[in-house]
Design a protein that fits this description.
This protein has about 300 residues and is of the alpha/beta class. It has 11 helices and 18 strands. The protein is globular and about 75 Å long.
Amino acid sequence: MSTYLTILGFNSAIPTINSSPTAQLLEMEERHFLIDCGEGTQVQLRKAKARFSKINHIFISHLHGDHCFGLPGLIASFRLLGRENPLHVYGPKGIKKMLETIFTLTETHRGFEVVYHELEKNYSEKIYEDSKIEVYTIPLDHRIYCNGYLFREKPKDRHLNIQEISKYEEIEVCDYHNLKAGKDFVLEDGYVLKNEILTTDPAPSVSYAFCSDTRYLESVIPIVKNVTVMYHESTFLHDLKEMADYTGHSTALEAATIAQKAQVNKLILGHFSNRYADLTVFTDEARTVFPNTFLPKALETIKL
C-alpha cells in the first residue's frame, strides 16, 4: 500500500496568489490525516479532489492563525456535508476552548462528535496507534507551545514464498499467519523450517516527519532518525539567523543540518517568508549540506 503526501499549502503567515498557509494531507495505509489547517485549506482540499469524509484525524501543530484558522470553517463544512462519524482533533491545550467558543458564538451545530486530544507534554509521546500506524509528537521550540508529528508504519508482514511452502504438505493455509509474522514451522518429525526459507522480506515501512515552526533544535534528531521524508520549516536564509531565532523559526541551512544529522532520506522545505520572490535560494542554501532537498509545490502529491 503506497503512502502519499499532498502539499495543500506551504506559505508563512500571509497567503499569496500562488500559495496558501500550511496544510498537508497524508494518505498512509488507507488512513487520511490532515496536518495543520491554515486559512483556505478546505478550498485546497477541493482542488486536490480529496474526499472530506475520509478525514477522521486532524493534527494541529500550534495555535498561530496560519496553522489553524481554516479549522472552524472546515468543521462547519463537514456538518453541511452530512458528516456523522466522530472527528479527532489533536493539538495544543486550548484548541478545544478556541473551537468551542467559535461554535457557540456562531451557533454552529455540528451533528457529529469532535473528540479533542489536547497536548501539553514537552517530550515525544505516542498519541495515535492502530493496527498499522503509530503517530508521535515532535516537541519544537517556537514562540508558543508547538509540536511536529511523526507518522510511522508498523513493520509489515513477511511475504510468503509459496514455491517453497508447497514442498511441505504439513503447512496449511491456517499456518500462513504465523509465517507472515516471522515464526518458524516445526514439522511432525521435529525438524525446524526456518522462517527465512518459507518467506521473503517485507517491503520497508514508510515514515514521515512534519516539523512545523521551530528554532534550530537538535533534540528533534533522534525522533526523526532515518525517516523516509521530512518536512522542516525554513522561513529564512541563514544570513537572517538572528531574525529566525528572534521569531522562533529556522533557516534553510539549519533545516538541512537537521536532515543531515538525522540521516533522513528526503527533505522538503516550507513556510517561506514573503520577502523572498525566488524560492530556489532555499534549496541552493540547503543543498550545500543536504543535497536531497526539495521545494514544495502547491497541490503536488508526493509518493513516499
